[in-house]
Design goal:
The chain is α+β, with helices and mostly antiparallel strands. The protein folds into two domains: about 130 residues, no CATH class; about 160 residues, no CATH class. It contains 13 helices and six strands. Helix 1 packs across helix 5. The longest helix has 18 residues. It is globular, with a radius of gyration of 21 Å. The two termini are about 30 Å apart. The model has no long low-confidence stretch (mean pLDDT about 90).
């Protein structure tokens, strides 16, 4: 634990010591129950499957006479105060350790600082911050990585016999569909996607697999993994180019509609969709362990 992380935890502990909400309203047992709800209750449970936690954060404020934000802030402070790199479920690299310093500082500023401009929402970004604090997610440059995920078997049936055969071949190469590292975008962590950041992300994930032999590969699912995205958004071509360099395999999952994330930061993609020239499609990309580590080894000799 670096001095900076230690000072951050000390600040969190100090806030907990003077918290009127903790000492006059919410019992330690109630806070401990909230903390327990932050963790998975079954193997390979996704970071965003925390229904008990979301229900508690929504209903307990009325019981305790506080706001949802105040309760979420108290929970974040308690998780920060108890965070330990040594208790993470995997062996991590020094790069991921350094990433954690940046992430925890951001979380403290967002959730725990008195000068927060507006109360943060208890949405997917909230659950991703919870995931970072509990080890359900790990920070890797431009992605957060879910280290205990599974490659979904539904891909066998989503796009015909050819895809099913390719999917089975990848399972054979990987020697199973779990555990794999799943890539996610955390909008609180990044402002934009870059070619340099994407390459660094993949290098850090490859190193994570090198340090943890039980991990069978890397998977991601999103509209920007669509092989055709470069025709609509040439600036995103670097994503598929690097995936091709790593010998990834693409699997069609489903088409997306007007609520697709493809439109959240691009008026041109939205316009192309409305004019019938673009249909956002969600693709799953998968890189088996052996292939990713072979690519990583080649990086070290370049």
């Amino acid at each position: 634990m670096t001095a900076s992380l230690a000072s951050l935890q000390q600040a969190a502990q100090q806030q907990l010591q003077v918290s009127t909400l903790l000492h006059s309203t919410i019992s330690s047992a109630a806070l401990q129950q909230l903390q327990c709800q932050c963790y998975a209750t079954a193997p390979y449970q996704s970071y965003n499957q925390r229904s008990d936690l979301l229900n508690s954060v929504a209903t307990l404020p009325a019981q305790f006479g506080c706001s949802k934000t105040e309760l979420a802030r108290l929970l974040m402070l308690s998780l920060l105060a108890e965070f330990s790199l040594q208790q993470l479920p995997l062996t991590i690299s020094s790069e991921i350790s350094d990433n954690y310093q940046r992430s925890l500082q951001r979380i403290f500023k967002l959730w725990c600082s008195a000068d927060t401009a507006s109360p943060p929402e208890t949405d997917d970004k909230f659950l991703k911050d919870i995931g970072l604090l509990t080890g359900a997610l790990l920070p890797c440059t431009e992605r957060v990585v879910e280290p205990f995920s599974a490659l979904q078997r539904s891909l066998l049936y989503s796009d015909g016999i050819a895809q099913a055969a390719g999917f089975i071949r990848e399972l054979v190469v990987a020697q199973g569909n779990k555990p794999v590292c799943r890539l996610h975008i955390h909008l609180s962590e990044i402002n934009q996607l870059t070619a340099a950041g994407w390459r660094q992300t993949c290098q850090q994930v490859a190193n994570l697999l090198l340090l943890n032999p039980q991990l069978k590969g890397v998977v991601g699912a999103c509209w920007f993994y669509d092989p055709a995205i470069a025709a609509i958004s040439p600036k995103l071509a670097f994503i598929s180019e690097l995936l091709s360099e790593m010998q990834a395999n693409w699997f069609f999952s489903h088409s997306e509609g007007e609520k697709s994330g493809a439109f959240s930061r691009s008026a041109s993609r939205k316009q192309a969709f409305e004019s019938g020239h673009y249909q956002p499609k969600n693709y799953v990309v998968f890189i088996p362990r052996s292939r990713l580590l072979a690519w990583y080894k080649r990086q070290s000799v370049l």
